[in-house]
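Narrative of activities, Objective 1.

The group set out to show that a structural description can be obtained from nothing but a protein's sequence at a throughput compatible with the screening campaign. Below is one input-output pair from the validation batch, recorded exactly as produced.
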Amino acid sequence: MRPLVLQGCGTALVTPFTADGAVDYEAYGRMVDRQVAAGVHFLVPLATTGETPTLSAGEKTAIYQLVKERAKGLPLMPGVGVNSLPDTLGNIRLLEPLGPDALLVVVPYYNKPTQQGMYAYFKAVAAETDLPVIIYNVPGRTGANMLPDTVIRLAEEVPNIRGIKEASGNYGQVSEILRRAPEDFTVLSGDDDMTLAFMATGAHGVVSVASNVAPKEVAQMVEAMQCGDLATARVLHHRLFPLFKACFAESNPIPAKAALAQLGVIGETLRLPLAPASDATKALMHKVLSELWK
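Output recorded for this entry:
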């Protein structure tokens, strides 16, 4: 059996910007250093949380190179998927020479493809690379839900489709994938608040938003589940649960950036069409952070 491509706690990295809207590479480097020191298991730059649709090709390349230089050997899984096959393949060609460990490819958004369309799309993407492809199913963002039958069909028929980041929030759907998928098919939670339940059923970890803010604690929770220490994992889950919920008080990554700004890690600037957190969200994050580390 082949080894799993990725497992553990992976952070879906936000992208820091300066006050005038440029990528803040200095802050990005500090942020990656913080992740590495906290013990996360892999990093996910250039995905939804990173506001990637607002980034140029040059910015994507520079960001990936920076992350690779500062990651100290941690596996990297950049987001490359968009809602156009040629543009997804263009992102793959942009980053593939830089040596990622896997590619995160989202179900095409806005188009609302059928299950057959999803199957054909992911098969076409996988045919253009030798790298492991991880499906990203997030129907709340894309408007289309990849069903377990389609996931299993791809897992069984396309050798380099090696896993899924499942963010449907549907426990039954994830359970069905885990029940039927090949043993070397990685299943990662895409929802922080579902990680404990998914891992208890056999999932292999999480691609986390909350670990931008509390990387050590989220990694410890995942490690406890990997070791079968449900009691410790449960305590950490309940401690982190207010943060898990607060990170989605507004569209991700708005709340996470507000929290990181309060911690002094990065600035709070976002690129349009995202706007800074409301006063209510900032107050909520202040309360959550105060209680998390009191």
